[in-house]
Amino acid sequence: MSALKSSAVVAHRHGGPEVLELESIDVQDPGPGEIRIAQEAIGLNYADIYQRQGAHGPTQTDSFPVILGSQGAGIVEVVGPGVSDFKVGQAVTYLMPGAYAGVRNVPAARALQIPDGLNVEQAAGTLLRGMTAEYLLHRLYKVQPGQKILVHAAAGGMGLILSAWGRALGAEVIGTVGSDEKVRVAKDAGCHHVINYRTERFEERVLELTAGEGVHVVYDAVGKDVFLPSLKCLRVRGMAINYGTASGDVEAFNLQILHAKSHSICRPTLRSFTITTEELRTSAETYAAAVRRGDVKADINRRYKLADVRQAHIDLESRKTVGAAVLLP
């Protein structure tokens, strides 16, 4: 098999942004069932921070060197043996670890034709979040018109999608943010009410806004700092969904806290909801359809060169950023 050279961001150990190194790697011809993609954009997600730091979860890294990232989009360069769904020159996107590279091979079963309504950058930068929002709002907890939902980090890339889509489904959306500037962003995205958790106790304000009843579901990508107070925001038989841990892992707590109001808790991952190729493609199309209807925006707010990946991680980890970002090879 022949090989070509490609730039890639490689980590040889866990740590801060300084462990990310731009290197040249060999990319072999695609094997059976694979396609080779010349990438035009690479998604940047908080899960990449977890992987770099060595946090527990579906992106946990046990061996090095490792190429970070899990989503991208580009043009099919070579089609491996046995692949019939894709052809050379086709624009595609995918969800698969090892995305921080200019050229890479991907199993065809984890790749997608870019759905109508999304361009290459939007597919690379928002598809993972959009598909996460799809299962959070439509499958794990099926949000109904008139229900009340709480979205933490409502001005972040995931929060913007959840807030807009939740409102489009007819829910009353309460968002939390960390600055007055982000209050405006979250309201523009679709939140009916926005709480600056740095100036207010969000759990008290949520109960005020819901006349003491609480919300039906909490969408929490923050983790440790908000998990326990979030349980106070739930109504009877409400569900707390912790799908990210930007402030740290949620550690052991007294299960009896859930008893009085029969609360449920879930710690899901997108991987479990896109196991099959059919699930992957259906989820992507459901998200793209929401974008086409105007229920959700697929805006890219920041672009970084692949060589500037350290700064991209610094900006993302600061929690001062808004919306989605991509790396450009």
Q: Summary?
A:
By secondary structure, this protein is of the alpha/beta class. It has helices at residues 46-53, 120-140, 157-168, 180-189, 202-209, 227-231, 270-273, 277-293, 309-317, and strands at residues 3-11, 20-28, 34-44, 66-67, 71-79, 91-95, 103-107, 111-113, 148-151, 172-177, 193-196, 215-220, 234-242, 264-266, 300-305, 324-328.
Mean model confidence by pLDDT:
94
Principal-axes shape call: globular
Count of the separate structural domains: 2
Q: Helix content range of the residues, please?
A: 25-40%
CATH homologous superfamily name of the largest domain?
A: Medium-chain alcohol dehydrogenases, catalytic domain
Order of helices and strands: EEEHEEEEEHEHEHEHEHEEHHEHE
Largest sheet data: 7 strands, mixed
- Termini separation comes to 25 Å
Overall number of strands: 16
Q: Return residue spans where pLDDT drops below 50 for at least 5 consecutive residues.
A: none
- Overall structural class, as computed from helix and strand content, comes to alpha/beta
CATH class of the largest domain: Alpha Beta
CATH architectural type of the largest domain: Alpha-Beta Complex
Strand percentage lies at: 25-35%
CATH topology of the largest domain: Quinone Oxidoreductase, Chain A, domain 1
Using only C-alpha atoms, the radius of gyration works out to: 20 Å
List the total number of helices: 9
Protein name: Quinone oxidoreductase family protein
Domain Enoyl reductase (ER): 15-327
InterPro entries: ADH-like_C, ADH-like_N, ER, GroES-like_sf, NAD(P)-bd_dom_sf, QOR-like
Keywords: NADP, Oxidoreductase
